[in-house]
């Protein structure tokens, strides 16, 4: 059987399971008595084991198996969780992660995990519990170990039980020296089919026929015959070593399928496992979207999951196909604008109406296309709790990470890139922001520091804030380093506002400071963070109250591909200004323009703001506002600063598709990209931020 | 006999030049382009090539030759070299020929005002014809572009 086509699915699923294992383990750590969490952990581990075994990654399966043994004891209240066990299991998860990583890199997922296995076994055998023999444990949970079934098969089993049939879980093992395993298996199947119906077998019937099984296979069997008869019939076949037969009742069946009725996430786990198990009768209709599963898993983490079985019907789509869809759609948008122009020229009612209708449809379509690419930030945030835990532990600090707004959605392309900068900022917060326990107590704070990680929408942007109640940033220390590195002169330094001083931390010269600790270590690689965020079209700012904590605020665009913009004309040239930075448009008389220190300024809503001549700045060949009595202006802002840009004429507001100017033209002054207009011409997009000092 | 090498031949003034066919995406007629403010002089602007925005370089201007008005023969050769995809404005382009690599000599110090580092070599074609092979990577070197920008500032 060809497994490679299921590899990407396996990787995705195992990452999800590892993530949910991590999350659940963390929440178990904060409420160790909650056995329901252990159940969740167990289920994830179990599914992971099944999946990896099916895919032939034996080492992963083996390690998960050892982990399961420990967890099983916990969930049956045979042992209690303690720091040693937590650490062991976290370590196992790390190994599992690196094995999966190895598989992603094209490796075989093999690793030497013997030290962890030894400690896991020691938990099972000696130190913690003496009475329980592992073998007995596995025997107890044999039914659930069985094989997962999909919804359809589950309902068959359920209905059979309800209508008085007997449902058996059968595990048949052939003799070690059996020559014709497949033939023996066939005989068993044959015997069973005469007595009832086989619902599902693992490995699949095809695999068994091709002798692709080790020594045993298991199956679900519906029949009217009793267990004894069944056993006799099976053992009648020669070369069969043993047949474990367990009668499945509603309860144990429920346990098997609890996910379906109780928590959506686990249903998906099973569905995923079945998908990964590649059962031939299975049609590949049960793929699930990653974020949904994770979101659901997060719900599970809270006690009293409470149900709410909202059937999430999702499919997994290759991001490249979405990109292709997006590109095609941008072509469509260009044509739409062209059609609108033609309609205004032709002035025929029915044409205008049709074009208007098409416009509405395509706006809706655009919204949908954009939403398709949206992913909750949770998919990035979910790895942080574990990271903070480990970091705090290694630094001997107490840190509480509070996440809000994890459901906020961002474009997939942004999501993929934003992880690293956030990791950096969070590490910074734990490492340099939050003080050590003794320092906190000395400062009259609680010994546990808090990091708030927030995400929220605002306008066309998503904000991600990282705020801690640590020691804050001291202006003087930052300035000292900045002066030493020649980032500012003493003269400039005196004039800078606090925020401007803090923002010096992002300057590229800052991180090269030799004695980082001088300024509490802030600034380490923050320039990299800033560059990355700016690359995504976002901004990062820092604010701080010395002694009370700091806040890093990251502003990101919702999407990178389509924006609303104001098209303006400068003589024969057209430019686009992003609507997100426009405050308003208006017109001013020549006599309103004032000259202050040789700079043109204009009164605007009770303040005086600079006037920028785009025609001069861009050396526009055929337009100069000096010749006009009345000039149109576009007021743009960056933070709390505003500037008025003088233009020839407004063309109007339009949705434009962002196109890059390519690498050859990167780093152009005040131009952030280009777009293609309805007539096929290229218009450049002005970056107002570059125009505001 | 050395290896065969297919090149696109174009003209710039009195010289004939060649670029490897693998690096040429398409050859276009002159078309309206959008000026890019604050870009180096030799960048004439950007065009929309079937949905992709591509910068256009006037090769005459790039090599410090006098610029000429557009004629019917003027062509834009869209090339890709390294990470870059750009269009080159040339006087005309109308030939594809096979070169024998044995017939390629090292470039002389200067050819019609073009520095040797922009050239890969000189190829002899038949009895009379000489072909200057362009080193696109050098012509499109970003460092040099930045130096030029600095001079302009």
Automatic annotation (TrEMBL), chain B:
Q: Where is the CheW-like domain?
A: 4-145
**A Pfam family per the record:** CheW
> How is this protein named in the record?
Chemotaxis protein CheW
Organism of origin is Paenibacillus marchantiophytorum
